[in-house]
Amino acid sequence: MKRLLLGPHAVLEAVRGRPGQITFVLVATSAERGHKAALDEIRSRGVRIESRSAEELDALAQGTRHQGLLALAGEYPYAGLEVVDALGDDALIVALDEVTDPHNFGAIVRSAVAFGADAIVTLKDRAAPVTPVVVRASAGATEHARIVRVTNLARSLDALRESGRQIVGLAAEGDIDIASLPPADRGRVIVVGSEGHGLRPLVRKQCDVLARIPMPGTIASLNASVAAGIALYAASIQR
Fold it and tell me: For residue 89, which phi and psi values (nearest 5 degrees)?
């Protein structure tokens, strides 16, 4: 199934990260001058560009903001869990337990790529897939990420733990500060719970440790994507 990449950030990152996936790029005639630098780079990478009316791009985008530039690409290249198994001993992985909001998912992908995470594991069901909204929320980081979809997260985490990965669940009542995790000699998996309910019991049971993010202020909880970003920063420093 084809997918749409909307806006200059998403289109450029896709062209840079996966140029073979791009069928062609459409630019609104009225936006050509404003996107000259982006269009020059796209052309230099051998990707076909076609001009269309803004109304045609609006119809394709179905109400999502595109800023006069979009691309048609192939189906998103999800990876399998074997990709995670093959990662080195210093691997940093993010696992998402029923994160359904596409803006949160996109923001987590952006943080994961920014802090050097090697893979993002999410669910095939009861979780946000990669959509134009997710790509846009990630500022195109989806095109540089390894995103793995699994059927059963608890079972997948068990397999990763058996292979020596340290499984760290984020929880407000965690018994250790996220900045003080024990060494992870075979790599680490940061597990982020859903927006409403946090980690499910079966997923929580697979965690070697539950880690908290200290919050001295008056707010007791964080958005899932914000918590993931803080945890990824801490893990990247400890790596």
Answer: -70, -15
Rounded to whole angstroms, the Cα distance separating 143 from 236 reads 21
> What is the C-alpha to C-alpha distance for residues 239 and 183, in angstroms, rounded to an integer?
9
C-alpha 18/C-alpha 208 separation (Å) is: 36
Distance CA(167)–CA(227), nearest Å, equals: 16
Rounded distance, CA 102 to CA 116, Å? Answer: 21
Answer whether 53's CB lies under 8 Å from 32's CB. no
Do residue 64 and residue 86 come from a single domain? no
Give the number of domains in the chain: 2
pLDDT tens per residue across span 53-75:
999 999 999 888 899 999 998 88
In terms of residue numbers, what domain contains 160?
81-238
State whether 66 and 93 are in the same domain.
no
Q: Is the pTM of this model over 0.85?
A: yes
Same domain, 113 and 14: no
